[in-house]
Specification:
single chain; 76 residues; mainly alpha; 78% helix; 0% strand; globular
Length: 76
C-alpha cells in the first residue's frame, strides 16, 4: 500500500462520494502532494510505516480539512 493510499483511507467517505470520478485521481494526488510539502514530518512517518494513533489522528484532521476546504471552494 502506498503512502497516498494510506492517507486517502482517512478521508471522510462522504467527500469521496461527492467528488466526480473524473477529478478524483487529481484531487487525491494534489492533496497528498500538499501534505508532503507542508507537513513533511507526518508524511515521512506514513512513508516509513511508523503510524501511531496520534499521527493517524493528525493526518486525518489535515486531509479532511483540505478536502472540506476544497469542497466548499468548488461548491461540491
Amino acid at each position: 500500500m502506498t503512502v497516498n493510499e494510506k492517507i486517502i483511507e482517512l478521508v471522510n467517505p462522504e467527500y469521496m462520494k461527492r467528488l466526480p470520478f473524473f477529478i478524483k485521481k487529481h484531487a487525491i494526488a494534489k492533496a497528498c502532494e500538499l501534505i508532503a510539502g507542508e507537513f513533511p514530518d507526518i508524511y515521512a512517518e506514513f512513508e516509513k510505516n511508523e503510524i501511531n494513533d496520534d499521527t493517524k489522528a493528525q493526518m486525518s484532521k489535515i486531509v479532511n480539512d483540505i478536502f472540506e476546504e476544497r469542497m466548499k471552494k468548488h461548491n461540491l
